[in-house]
């Protein structure tokens, strides 16, 4: 007889492991299945985010930023270092160590919360006796049973047709995190989060980086003012960004990759690089789930169809994170995982898509929450906006990082904050105040009246709120 659980979670990424822990906290007997392996073949829960995404990319970004500071900026602080060299192998090893700490931390949390962990690939077998049988294909195959099932199998990198990933020359986010030496020339197809972050890492370490973007606009999802400021900063740093290109052919050879494309003016161009990162989006990971065995409904993209509460078409089966609709963000998956566990317990789990923050960990960092100015214009919403530059912020001057600004958009009639957009130092941390303010339906006046520590970068948020009413104090 198979092991029986109240809740079985398929996938141990941010959505899955958090759902499992929350369900266990609520008193359920929980199992979590995850197939990620470390170099030794052992379990490595945490999904794409921990293993080949958010966490390792931040580790490399930190290392490369230290290198750039030491080689280019220490002198202005009176620090003499001599010639600075980067040991790429050691940098990659540190990144791997950070990943392992997170893997081990999740395994510890499973043990602490009495979540039964199964290392292997989970797939549906059948619906039987009011529960679902799930096969775990690991070192030893077994079948477990769950009254409730949460699918959190994440997403995979989308390949470019005719340029399949070999993770040697043509790289996904996975291969981009394992490059053994600084490439002389690096090409990136796609100017989204992964492309910009990985391009920034290797540019800082000395690579000549060219980013090719099919769309005619840069960072179309961001506020236009933020995108314009970011493009100016990245170009000044040395990133070459071409917009409106059309890829015609990619040739992968022994000496590197050649990309033939048409530029925005219709001219034929060719780019020869040592390595090519393809970051043109991600696709839901449902292959191998055996959804047909139980009749689980997928859409034309291969994503699991869910309602607003993450319920699928099957009773007792839920899905969260990248494998369903909505932004493919780790923190969105976590919130859905918690909400589903609470709904299973009869509570009212809640996820507010309007206040999910977005962050790009480049330098300058980019972060936003809520609607952009162009979205509000398109929707015919009357608004007022205020902006404050980090150039006028004392802490930013002391840091030596004054690029960018904070921008707050509020309703013209009610003053309720509709969106906050930041490009500049520590934007990833500053955005949290904006998220909280919007969750509590704050007005720009509310932030303008709150005492912010001096000197701090957060004062720029206060000043941007004051700017909504055209009464900044320091600019």
Automatic annotation (TrEMBL):
Note: The active site is a redox-active disulfide bond.
Ranges in coiled-coil conformation: none
Keyword Cytoplasm: yes
Cystine bridges: 49-54
Residues that, per the record, bind FAD: 58, 122, 153-155, 322, 328-331
Catalytic activity: N(6)-[(R)-dihydrolipoyl]-L-lysyl-[protein] + NAD(+) = N(6)-[(R)-lipoyl]-L-lysyl-[protein] + NADH + H(+)
Cellular component GO terms, alphabetical: cytoplasm
Positions bound to NAD(+): 190-197, 213, 281
UniProtKB keywords: Cytoplasm, FAD, Flavoprotein, NAD, Nucleotide-binding, Oxidoreductase, Redox-active center
Domain Pyridine nucleotide-disulphide oxidoreductase dimerisation intervals: 356-465
Active site (record annotation): 454 (proton acceptor)
Cofactor descriptive note: Binds 1 FAD per subunit.
UniProt name for this protein: Dihydrolipoyl dehydrogenase
A GO MF term: flavin adenine dinucleotide binding
Gene Ontology BP annotations: 2-oxoglutarate metabolic process
Keyword check for Flavoprotein: yes
Chain ranges of the FAD/NAD(P)-binding domain: 5-337
One Pfam family, short name: Pyr_redox_2
InterPro entries from the UniProt entry: Class-I_Pyr_Nuc-Dis_Oxidored, FAD/NAD-bd_sf, FAD/NAD-binding_dom, FAD/NAD-linked_Rdtase_dimer_sf, Lipoamide_DH, Pyr_nuc-diS_OxRdtase, Pyr_nucl-diS_OxRdtase_dimer
Name of the top EC class for this enzyme: oxidoreductase
EC number: 1.8.1.4
Similarity annotation: Belongs to the class-I pyridine nucleotide-disulfide oxidoreductase family.
Named cofactor requirement(s): FAD
Organism: Ideonella aquatica
Protein localization: Cytoplasm
């Amino acid at each position: 007889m198979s092991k029986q659980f109240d809740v079985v979670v398929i996938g141990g990424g941010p959505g899955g492991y958090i759902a499992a822990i929350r369900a266990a906290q609520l008193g359920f007997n929980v199992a979590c299945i995850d197939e990620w392996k470390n170099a030794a073949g052992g379990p490595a829960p945490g999904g794409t985010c921990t293993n080949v995404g958010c966490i390792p990319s931040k580790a490399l970004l930190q290392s490369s930023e230290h290198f750039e500071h030491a080689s280019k900026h220490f002198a202005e602080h009176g620090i003499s270092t001599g010639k600075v060299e980067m040991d790429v192998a050691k940098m990659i090893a540190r990144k791997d160590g950070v990943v392992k700490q997170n893997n081990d931390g999740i395994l510890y949390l499973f043990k602490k919360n009495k979540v039964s962990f199964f290392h292997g690939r989970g797939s549906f077998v059948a619906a039987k006796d009011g529960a679902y049988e799930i096969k775990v294909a690991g070192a030893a195959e077994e079948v477990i049973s769950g009254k409730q099932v949460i699918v959190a199998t994440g997403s995979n990198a989308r390949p470019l047709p005719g340029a399949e990933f070999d993770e040697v020359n043509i790289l996904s986010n996975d291969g981009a995190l394992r490059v053994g030496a600084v490439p002389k020339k690096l090409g990136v197809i796609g100017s989204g989060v992964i492309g910009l972050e990985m391009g920034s890492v290797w540019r800082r370490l000395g690579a000549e980086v060219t980013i090719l973007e099919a769309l005619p606009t840069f960072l179309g999802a961001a506020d236009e003012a933020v995108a314009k400021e970011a493009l100016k900063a990245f170009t000044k740093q040395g990133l070459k960004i071409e917009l409106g290109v059309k890829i015609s052919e990619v040739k992968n050879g022994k000496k590197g990759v050649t990309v033939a494309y048409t530029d925005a003016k219709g001219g034929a161009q060719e780019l020869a690089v040592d390595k090519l990162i393809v970051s043109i989006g991600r696709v839901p990971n449902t292959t191998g789930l055996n959804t047909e065995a139980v009749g689980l409904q997928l859409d034309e993209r291969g994503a699991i169809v869910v309602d607003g509460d993450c319920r699928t078409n099957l009773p007792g089966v839920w899905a969260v994170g990248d494998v369903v609709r909505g932004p493919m963000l780790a923190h969105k998956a976590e919130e859905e995982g918690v909400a589903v566990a609470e709904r299973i317990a009869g509570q009212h789990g809640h996820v507010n898509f309007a206040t999910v923050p977005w962050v790009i960990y480049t330098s300058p960092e980019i972060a936003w929450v809520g609607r952009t100015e162009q979205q509000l214009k398109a929707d015919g919403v009357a608004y007022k906006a205020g902006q404050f530059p980090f150039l006028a912020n004392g802490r930013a001057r002391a840091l030596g990082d004054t690029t960018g600004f904070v921008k707050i958009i509020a309703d013209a009639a009610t003053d309720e904050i509709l969106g906050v957009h930041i490009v500049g130092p520590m934007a990833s941390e500053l955005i949290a105040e904006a998220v909280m303010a919007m969750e509590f339906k704050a007005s720009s006046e509310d932030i303008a009246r709150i005492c912010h520590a001096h000197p701090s970068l957060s004062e720029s948020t206060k000043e941007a709120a004051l700017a909504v009413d055209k009464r900044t104090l320091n600019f």
